[in-house]
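Quick start: what a row looks like.
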Amino acid sequence: MELRDKKVLVIGLARSGMAAIRLLHAAGAGSITLTERKDVAGKEELAQMGVRIVKQTPEVFTEDYDLVIKNPGISPLTDFVVDMRKRGIPVITEIELAFQLAQPQHYAAVTGTNGKTTTTTLVYEFLKKAYGDKAHVAGNIGIPLCEVVLEHDLMHQSGHYIALEMSQGQLIDIDAFRPEVSTILNLTPDHIDFMGSLDNYYTSKTRIYKNMTESGMFLKNIDDPVIAQYTDRYKVPCRVKTLSLQQEADACLKDGFVVIDGEKVMPVSEIRLPGDHNKQNILAAAGLCHELGVSAEDIADVVRHFKGVEHRIEFVRELDGVKYYNDSKGTNTDATITALKAFDHGVILLVGGFEKGLSMDEVKKHLGCVKQVIGFGASGKRIATDLAGDQAIVVTDLVQAVDEARKAAVSGDTVLLSPTTSSFDQYPNFEERGKHFKQIVNALQ
């Protein structure tokens, strides 16, 4: 990508926008304009880089640009995004920018509806065990790829290994991005408001392998019928290996062992993480990394010591015989179903948050382990009553929800925050919601 004398617009700052601006500046972009709705932090550094800062007014988007870097949280259906594309202006996210400016690297890309962060973290841990300082993690996990490229001088160095979590917002804006190995973990309803339709959402995920060649490998979850449907519609152009919890595959469970490419890696009994979903995450990460040269011994060693990811069925504490789990990353119904499957009785389920309008019909089928449902936040009443009718408890916020949960719990029970929806009614993101839940729980006496 040649950026000299090019006019670039960056839409939205945050961490990814700042990382993109720094990389654009390092690559010698002709002029950089930042448009941001909120107050801009780091104005002094931006001024030193010659960045023009403007508000997000309509006239900003009518100017001509050679390139636009869009925050992945901005819907592709937004009027000004649609208009700029119609005018032939390339609109990409910082991942595509970083990929085009970096030297060739080994990318292991992970997408899907649920399990992305756990799987990507495992991929990184496997790669770090095998390749040390040449292993990095980036993407939707919270670390911009532009930041990694700058920090490790990847514009000039090649041969590093990068675990990359990718959301639909990042995938819809790729152009040349091509991972060496990739997977779609699962496909279930989510982000319909952002993408305009469920079909658009599912289709966006297939872009992870769009540019791959025969030298690459796509790991296909053959237990998921939706993945089968969409990989049939959008053909995979590279080699395909298979993953399954239910049958023999390239990455599978067989005779009590984790098996990758026909090799016994470790006994299933040595996995510490709860639930079948985590076994699937381990298989996916191991399948990708074995293809990248990570040994079975290194994979087994990492899995034996891996405790999980913050905000994803994260154990917080035990008090008076009651265990508290933070699953704030359960921002859709399938994630909550996955969490419920990890328990067999005595669950007090805390649900609610931003109103996405998702049906609770599927969640209802998995309430056998639940003794009480407590709703909080903007959608709390609707979700809780959909799930439990008159037996539901409805409160205003998370503090009250934990208070009611403690009253209802007895020794042997589990209090599980798994909201089924996003946090934007009361929190800026699911991380802040999860941190607040842990603060509340750890303050209990």
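That is the whole record. The radius of gyration is 22 Å. The longest strand covers residues 106-111.
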